[in-house]
Amino acid sequence: EVQLVESGGGLVQPGGSLRLSCAASGFTFSSYWMSWVRQAPGKGLEWVANIKEDGSEKYHVDSVKGRFTISRDNAKNSLYLQMNSLRAEDTAVYYCARGGYSYGYWGQGTLVTVSS
Amino acid sequence: EIVLTQSPGTLSLSPGERATLSCRASQSVSSNYLAWYQQNPGQAPRLLIYGASSRATGIPDRFSGSGSGTDFTLTISRLEPEDFAVYYCHQYGSSPLTFGGGTKVEIK
């Protein structure tokens, strides 16, 4: 059974940093693109970043470029999102999803709240 | 950036009725790389349709997708109680990947 379990969310002050993790199981992690998608409270979905199977290609939405970095560790079956210089508008549930483009499997999400 | 506009914003229907949801793109979606997701409150989205018309694994055949270019449709032939939810379209043909604003299907 495919499982994606996010962790690392929480309350952080504006300008602060957080590192989200996604632990994958039930499939060959190193064979799939992976992505982060977020959803602000009461709002729609927004693609944040994706990363190729071997980590050689990474793409980020413009609003997070230079602040967020997606990465992965295939030996640990884990996906990460390093978030720096956080802003109030980054407040959202962050989902880890399997795939680089359409997403057949999602985690349950982890809530990031940016507030003073 | 491709902007996806979903309509209507809310659809009020009864169980057993047919639902037709629209997704219009601001420019042509490359290779019809258009997906539909269903989301219930407090849950992660679930993939229903990819490639504009292919049903994802385990999705009932009452869900169907159609369209090409800039106009796409999700049809639910007969609404079941579990189908009342929010639906999002999503284009993955060009970067940045974008989602529509969603259509809420509610019980009338």
Observed structural traits:
heterodimer; A: 116 residues; seven-stranded mixed β-sheet; B: 108 residues; mainly beta; four-stranded antiparallel β-sheet
List the helices and strands and how they pair.
The complex is a heterodimer of chains A (116) and B (108).
Chain A (H helix, E strand, L loop, with lengths): L2 E5 L2 E3 L5 E8 L8 E6 L5 E7 L6 E3 L7 E6 L4 E6 L8 E7 L6 E2 L3 E5 L2
Parallel strand pairs in A: 2-11
Antiparallel strand pairs in A: 1-3, 3-8, 4-5, 4-9, 5-6, 7-8, 9-10, 9-11
Chain B lengths: L3 E4 L2 E4 L5 E7 L8 E6 L6 E5 L3 E2 L7 E6 L2 E6 L9 E6 L6 E2 L3 E5 L1
Parallel strand pairs in B: 2-11
Antiparallel strand pairs in B: 1-3, 3-8, 4-5, 4-9, 5-6, 7-8, 9-10, 9-11
Principal-axes shape call of chain B:
globular
State the share of residues found in helices of chain A, binned by percent. Answer: under 10%
Q: First CA to last CA of chain B: what distance?
A: 35 Å
Rg for CA atoms of chain B: 13 Å
Query: What's the story with the biggest beta sheet of chain B?
Result: 7 strands, mixed
Largest interface: A-B, 17 and 22 residues
Extended strand count of chain A: 11
Strand content of chain A: over 45%
The largest pleated sheet of chain A is described as:
7 strands, mixed
Order of helices and strands of chain A: EEEEEEEEEEE
Contiguous uncertain segments of 5+ residues of chain A:
none
Average pLDDT taken over every residue of chain B = 96
Ends apart, CA distance between termini of chain A: 40 Å
Number of helices of chain B: 0
Globally, the shape of chain A reads globular
What order do the helices and strands of chain B follow?
A: EEEEEEEEEEE
Task: Specify the oligomeric state.
Answer: heterodimer
The total count of helices of chain A amounts to 0
Radius of gyration of chain A from the CA trace? 13 Å
Q: Approximately what portion of the residues of chain B adopt beta-strand conformation?
A: over 45%
Number of strands of chain B: 11
